[in-house]
Amino acid sequence: MCIFLSFLFLFPLVLIIFKNLLPSKRKLPPGPTGLPIIGNLHQLQGLLHSDLHKLSLEHGPVMLLRFGVVPMVVFSSKEAAKEALKTYDLETCDRPKLVANGLFTHNFKDIGFTQYGDFWREMKKLVGLEFFSPQKQKSFRYVREEEGDLLVKKISKSAQRQTLVDLRKALYSFTAGIIFRLAFGQDFHDCDFIDIDRVEELVKETETNVCALAFTDFFPTGLGWLFDRISGQHSRLSKAFANQSNFFQHVIDEHLKVGQPQDHLDLVSAMLDMINRPTKLGSFKITSDHLKAMMSDVVLAGVNAGVTTMTWMMTELTRHPRVMKKLQEEIRSTLGSNRERITEEDLEKVEYLKLVIKETFRLHPPAPLLLPRQTMADIEIQGYYIPKNAMIKINTYTIGRDPKCWTNPEEFIPERFLNSSINYKGQHFELLPFGAGRRMCPGMGLGINMLELGFLNILYFFDWSLPEGMTIEDIDMEEAGDLNIAKKVPLELIPSLHQA
Ligand code: HEM
To answer: Would the pTM count as exceeding 0.90?
Structure first.
């Protein structure tokens, strides 16, 4: 009897041990054959999203690669993305602990790169209340409208002189102008320690380095560590981090100066207030590291994604004069003639603008692989086994071009969204510019708001033409970037004041 009972008790245990010892029968996703030690790293030599696009067309919508010792699974179909972000939302919402991400976020004290858990939840709630909430955003309305007016004023000067406008620079000044005032309480158009070119340089330097893959991420500690030091990667990261940190310290110091004008309570003021409170908020005490980590998130996520989308949108409009004409006619007839300024009451009114925005997101999602994620458990997607701790990439670039989802996918046709319920809010997995699930972008409302306001301004007041001798066929569509994939060659156009 005793032997029988022991057998009953031990049998399941023996089964579990055996199951773990036997080679896995579970089906791993297909993928390109890698080399010993480095895995598939040698096959990725261009822009990552573009290399993964080509490889996924060859190997299928669920593809396994190896970066050194780390398995990386790429999901490139609407169905696979839906399973990953909806069915397994919880299991896929972690972020990998990458060296550069840790450095720039003061050891993951931010929202975007920190691992999933209580800290992320509490930080998101805090920053949500102080920055992303609809009430807070409503109170910042005048800032966005003023920056819209300034954009029109600057372009008007070029229109009078008939000189070229670099659209990225103009839209950068508009977007960064808004984000810096909302988040940092800093008007850099009127600032003695930084100007727009330096802001752009700093954000670019941070983005390049935040996204830089360190050998330490993919090779066992000692080897990767050594390689990062010999290759200069470690010192490059440290230098960029010091530049960013000094700049943020400058902004903080300005806030701490007595008598600084405070026209509204920006994110830095709100977080400084939390730092000075004697009690903890939730389970941790906010420090200046949390503040700097959040400043880094907001600058990276808030400025670049918006500017990148706006530049692509203006590029596609210039390449498609029919769409540009239709959009301008709809904007002007909806808003009426002789308007002196655009306000946020005008947003939402122009139906065709929404279609153009969706079509731009489909072909040019600013972060084509979203942010890196990591599985927290073994899961099965589209019949393939995905192990715990695998890095995952949601390939929205390939999904946006998938002929199974879109007719004539390479063509820019905003009308495809007419009478279609597909939107970008994370429920339609063929269009995911803001991601989906728990880690979806919390800045979507603000991002869309800036996009619409910017475009109503530049398309209501101005007509745009290419420089003398240039045709739409000459517009270069080459991409560049690290996290946000932007247009490489500047888009330069000549504005003319529209005569009603
Ligand atoms: C057109 C504008 C924007 C686009 C296309 C965009 C896109 C994205 C994407 C793709 C992600 C990753 C989602 C994922 O991993 O599933 C993300 C995350 C994030 N975005 Fe945005 N974003 C935009 C504007 C903004 C703005 C204006 C802010 C704030 C000022 C912002 C703050 C964030 C933050 C904090 C995260 C991290 C969320 C988390 O990990 O929990 N974004 N965004």
So the answer is: yes
- Closest-CA residue, ligand 1 atom 42, reads 443
| Fold category of 47-497 in CATH | Cytochrome p450 (1.10.630)
Q: How many angstroms separate the alpha carbon of residue 385 from the centre of ligand 1?
A: 29
Q: Is 301 close to ligand 1, i.e. is its CB under 6 Å away?
A: yes
Tell me the pLDDT of the chain (500 aa) as tens digits: 333 333 333 334 333 333 443 345 689 999 999 999 899 999 998 999 999 999 999 999 999 999 999 999 999 999 999 999 999 999 999 999 999 999 999 999 999 999 999 999 999 998 998 889 989 899 999 999 999 999 999 999 999 999 999 999 999 999 999 999 999 888 878 777 778 888 888 888 888 888 777 888 888 768 888 888 888 888 999 999 999 999 999 889 888 886 665 556 889 988 988 888 776 767 788 999 999 999 999 988 999 999 999 999 999 999 999 999 999 999 999 999 989 999 999 998 999 999 999 999 999 999 999 999 999 999 999 999 999 999 999 999 999 999 999 999 999 999 999 999 999 999 999 999 999 999 999 999 999 999 999 999 999 999 999 999 999 999 999 999 888 999 999 999 999 999 87
110 CA → ligand 1 middle, Å: 13
Residue type for position 217: D
Q: Ligand 1 in contact with 274 (CB < 6 A)?
A: no
From the CA of 110, give the closest atom in ligand 1. Answer: 35
Query: Domain-by-domain residue ranges, the chain?
Result: 47-497
In sequence order, the 6+-apart residues with CB closer than 8 A to the CB of 447 are 302, 305, 306, 309, 434, 441
- Measured from the Cα of 365, ligand 1's closest atom is 5
Q: Contact, 345 vs 335, CB < 8 A?
A: no
372 CB less than 6 Å from ligand 1?
no
Region of residue 383 (phi > 0: left; psi between -120 and 50: alpha; otherwise: beta): left
Do the annotations mark residue 2 as ligand-binding?
A: no
- Report the separation in Å between the CA atom of 444 and the middle of ligand 1, taken as the mean of its atom positions: 7
Residues 329, 321: Cα–Cα separation, whole Å: 12
Cα of 485 vs centre of ligand 1, distance in Å, is: 14
Bin 419: left if φ > 0, else alpha if -120 < ψ < 50, else beta: left
Is the CB of 297 inside a 6 Å radius of any atom of ligand 1? Answer: yes
Give me the residue label for tokens 């939840």: 121
